Amino acid sequence: MSNPRPLQEEAYDMSGARLALTLCVTKAREGSQADLDALGRMFRQLRFESTMKKDLTAQQFQEELEKFQQAIDTWEDPVSCAFVVLMAHGEEGFLEGEDGEMVKLENLFEVLNNKNCQALRAKPKVYIIQACRGEQRDPGETVGGDEIVMITNDKPHTIPTYTDALHVYSTVEGYTSYRHDQNGSCFIQTLVDVFTERKGPILELLTEVTRRMAETEVLQEGKQRKVNPEILSTLRKQLYLQ
C-alpha cells in the first residue's frame, strides 16, 4: 500500500487572464447601481477584465453566459479564473429576468463546467448570486455570553465534471435577500469590502464576509432582520485573488 500524499497547500495558478461577467436586473431593484459600481471597483483592483450587462430577459441571461463561454474558449492567452455575478429577483433555483420569466440557475452554472468550457477545465469558476431564494425572513436568535489524484499507466488523469466551482449565495435556501435603495445590498457591499481590503484564500475571505453579515442588523419593514450568505464549494486548491 502506497503512502498517502503529504498534506500540503496547493494554489490555483492565477498568472493568466482573469475574466468577469456581471448580469444584473436593475428595474424594480433600487440600489443595484451601487452594487454594480462596487463590483466594478473590485474587479479593477483584482485585475479582472470585466463585462457588465443590465436588464436582461431570462433568455438573455442564458445567451450572455454562452457568449462568455465562447469568448473564454477562444481567448488568445491562457485563462486562469472566471467570475460570474448574477443579480436579480429570484426564488430557490431560479432568477427572474427583466421580462418576468424565470431562468434556471443550474442551466447557467452548466455553461462553464469542465465539460462545456475547455479553457476553464480544472480552473476556478466563482459564481456570486445576489437574489432571494424564498419568502422566509430571519429575525435572528439570542445566544449566550487533497485533492485525490488517481493516475495509472494506461489511463489519463481525469477530474469530475463539476469540480473547481464556487457558488456564493447572498442568503440561505428559502430566505429573502435584502438591498438598500441607495446603498446597495449588504451582501455585495460587504463582499467587495473584504475582497479589496484583505488577502488570503477566498474561502477564508468568505468566512469574514459571513462574520460581518451575521453581525449586521438589517431593518426591513420596521423590523430587525438577520441575513447571511451560503457558500458551496468544489474547489480543489486554494484560490488567491491578491
Automatic annotation (TrEMBL):
Protein name: Caspase-14
GO CC list: cornified envelope; cytosol; mitochondrion; nucleoplasm
Annotated GO MF terms: cysteine-type endopeptidase activity
Gene3D superfamilies per the UniProt record, alphabetical: 3.40.50.1460
Ranges where the Caspase family p10 domain occurs: 155-242
Annotated keywords: Cytoplasm, Differentiation, Hydrolase, Nucleus, Protease, Thiol protease, Zymogen
Keyword Nucleus part of the UniProt annotation: yes
Family affiliation: Belongs to the peptidase C14A family.
Stored Pfam families: Peptidase_C14 (PF00656)
Quaternary data: Heterodimer of a large and a small subunit, both processed from the precursor; the mature active form is a p17/p10 dimer and the intermediate form a p20/p8 dimer.
Keyword Transmembrane helix: no
Domain (Caspase family p20) ranges: 29-136
Compartments reported by the entry: Cytoplasm; Nucleus
Organism: Propithecus coquereli
Listed InterPro entries: Caspase-like_dom_sf, Caspase_cys_AS, Pept_C14, Pept_C14_caspase, Pept_C14_p10, Pept_C14_p20, Pept_C14A
Highest taxon of source: Eukaryota
GO term, biological process aspect, one: positive regulation of neuron apoptotic process
Main location: cytoplasm
SUPFAM superfamilies, A to Z: Caspase-like
